[in-house]
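Many introductory courses stop at the sequence. We go one step further.
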Amino acid sequence: MQKFNPAFSGSDVKKYILKKNLKKDLPASIVVFLVALPLCLGIALASGAPLFAGLITGIIGGVVVASFSGSQLSVSGPAAGLTVIVLGAITSLGSYQTFLLAVVLAGVFQMILGLVKAGTIGNYFPSSVIEGMLAAIGLILILKQLPHALGVDTDFSGDEGFFQQDHENTFSAITAAVSHFSLAAVVISLLSIAILIVWPKFPKLAVVPAPLLVVTLGVIGTILFAGTDHPLRADQMVKIPVVSGFGEFLGLFTMPDFSQLANKNVYITAATIAVVASLETLLSIEAVDKIDPIKRVSPTNRELIAQGLGNITSGMVGGLPMTSVIVRSSANVNAGARTKMSAIFHGCWLLLSLLFIPGVINMIPLSCLAAILLVTGYKLTRISLFKHMYHKGWDQFVPFVVTVLAVLFTDLLKGVAVGMLVSIFYLLRTNMRNPFFYRITNEGDKKHIRIKLAEEVSFLNKAAIQVVLTNIPKETDVIIDGSNARYIDPDVLETIYNYKHNAYTKGIIVTLENIQKHYTVPKLNIKVEEDINKL
């Protein structure tokens, strides 16, 4: 094992860390590239856009967004969650060039959202909902990739919705695949899964990344089965556009139609894309931070700015709108990536493959890529995660399970929205039952009750305080003590003052101690705030 000399200079330390990380980032980037390739093409196909648009979006998501992003493990590219919006927008706006203008404006809107600190909304997603989203993505990966592993699926790769573009749903697609499976695809996918599970257990062999070995096996399998009665068909293979030279490559780019700047529908489409893409990005960033082995925290506002730059660039050259994508990001984490260089390299591999080796790439069977995603999906939705959430209590387990089911049977955003509603219900229920914000004491033989408010009393405590005050018996002296309170919500103050005003009708005497007429939200300590701003 290489030892680190503490006498090294700062530059030596950086070189040492870079070299150490590159050993993990380079192999991981190849895995992400192989996973992203069919997803970029499939999402472009489902969106009604040129196949090249999907690839260029993946390239920009890797090179541009990752370069400016503060997230070390997130991978950006075209997202399945935007396909319906994109397909409808291209049709309604009348031309692809007009749609590209909407993508550019969506990027501008995202940058504005980042500058006004809108990314902080990502801090309010409950842990149980994020865990549920990750588990659901894992299940979706398994269920959606099974048909590809069996060699039968007419729907595009990366479709995360329950109802598919080919009029099938998640389960009917699996049933159809089982009935019409391909022997070659099954053999390749089973061998690939076996390699992905067994290969890492031998450290000396693991110098060669298991996914790279799987892809090599897939190409060899394609060649071997070509001479049998069960060859792989063209729709069971990766398919990227073949360009004969750099000039033809440049001819694939498309510019937005800036003459449509006065078209109000362009701005409506841009705002829709910006909001949906930003929400998906924030959810993905939160999820990736949870599975990051080093537990780094990504700056969400900076991420929105990076996504905005990516969408502006993508729209300017003919690409699709992009988000941080949890499928590719999860594959990146599970492949052992350590820094953003993995995402940047994956963008470079997409570009180089399009320019120099499209023939070799088109020999990779989808079944071996499906095997990589099946193993990734299992790691996200492992049984131990469900056990862990169950032991955390019903207030965590129920929102977790509801999120899993909602994402599985609808889509990412709708599922998370349902999970958030259930989580909020449990939050309100806890506040109703939890007396942490007051203390009741009986003083002497008389009926004396002292209610001592906590340091922070929010509107979530209003209902519980109302219940306590309503149940105070007649002929009682009540003292409501706010000496510890730095902030009391206006709704709670109104409840307290209304009770004091009406309590005499029950013979209750109410005394308010150290309760102000108005409170302002407490600010950070000035010194702490200055230190944070310096960062």
